[in-house]
Design goal:
This protein is of the alpha/beta class. It has a domain at 5-152 and 185-216 and 264-276: Rossmann fold, CATH 3.40.50.720. The chain has helices at 13-25, 34-37, 42-52, 73-94, 126-141, 161-171, 188-204, 222-237, 266-272, 279-291; strands at 5-8, 29-32, 56-59, 98-103, 145-150, 153-154, 174-178, 182-183, 186-187, 210-213, 220-221, 242-246. Strand 1, helix 1 and strand 2 (29-32) form a beta-alpha-beta unit. The termini are far apart.
Length: 293
């Protein structure tokens, strides 16, 4: 199977990480931002696929403003439902497999253990609902698809929790962080590696199509994650703010968050032969990369 990997949403943190990693590996890859690759624009999507003739399409594009989605349902539906449906249909017509990134927010977070792919979905808000409907649209439109659910994504690119904590650790003496939501922090570099592993499997002709979970190794809370970030940066900056645990009810937001976002990544590891690094090790490396001269 020849041709490049074509990435929609390449301006986001995962898209930029994937382009960097693929480029370093000598993998042919083309990234499209919204200006030239708006997934809700059917003619633009079709033209991009016809022009680039990709072997694989990766959809990193999405509406991800969880709280704003509560008052911007139509915009969220455009990015998370209509866009993926258009992209999946175009990929199917072109005979190109599609990898679509989804989220833990399709679950309500009430399960005691880690979520597996067959657990029933029950989104709590507009963002999760639109992402769930986007998954459904992809399943209907594109027979050859991999839907990859992930959670708590962070990395060197874009805006994310780790970079916010680094900024606040430099500005404040105390950080108040929610301690009753748990999940698996997932580095974009691991997600990018996972996507390349899917590409390898597809080129070998051995891909079981369907839905998979992929998250960092290990489980923590937002408070635990913040504490690790502060510890990692302290030796480099000399700043060590107090990280105070608070309850979700002490930090009200327009959208409800799942209290449990833990994803079981075992099926992905068994199928594609790749498992993410422990989140603490990745956090240390990313903090050092961002802060060291």
């Amino acid at each position: 199977m020849s041709g490049p990997i074509l990435v929609f949403g390449a301006q986001g943190q995962l898209g930029r990480e994937l382009l960097d990693l693929a480029g370093a590996r000598g993998v042919e890859i083309i990234g499209l931002g919204r200006a030239e690759g708006d997934i809700a624009n059917a003619s633009a999507v079709t033209a991009s696929i016809e022009r680039e003739k990709p072997r694989l399409i990766v959809n990193c594009a999405a509406y991800t403003a969880v709280d704003k989605a509560e008052s911007e349902r139509e915009v969220a539906e455009l990015g998370n439902v209509k866009g993926p449906a258009i992209l999946a249909a175009a990929a199917h017509r072109a005979g190109v497999p599609l990898v679509h990134i989804s989220t833990d927010y399709v679950f309500d977070g009430t399960k005691q253990g880690a979520y597996v792919e067959t657990d029933p979905i029950a989104p709590l808000g507009v963002y999760g609902d639109t992402k769930a409907r986007g998954e459904a649209a992809v399943r209907v439109a594109a027979e050859r698809h991999v839907i990859l659910r992930t959670a708590w994504v962070y990395g060197a690119h874009g805006a994310n929790f780790l970079k916010t904590m680094l900024r606040l650790a430099n500005e404040r003496a105390e950080l108040r962080v929610v301690a009753d939501q748990r999940g698996c922090p997932t580095a974009t570099v691991d997600l990018a590696e996972a996507l390349l592993a899917v590409d390898t499997a597809i080129r070998s002709g051995e891909t079981p199509w369907g839905t998979y979970h992929f998250g960092g190794q290990g489980v923590t809370t937002w408070h635990g994650f913040a504490s690790e970030i502060v510890d990692c940066q302290a030796g480099l900056t000399g700043k060590r703010p107090v990280v105070t645990a608070i309850a979700t009810q002490d930090y009200p937001t327009p959208a409800r968050r799942p209290p449990n976002s833990e994803l079981d990544s075992g099926l992905f590891a068994r199928t594609f032969g790749y498992r993410a690094s422990p989140w603490q090790a990745r956090t240390q490396k990313i903090v050092e990369a961002l802060l060291k001269p």
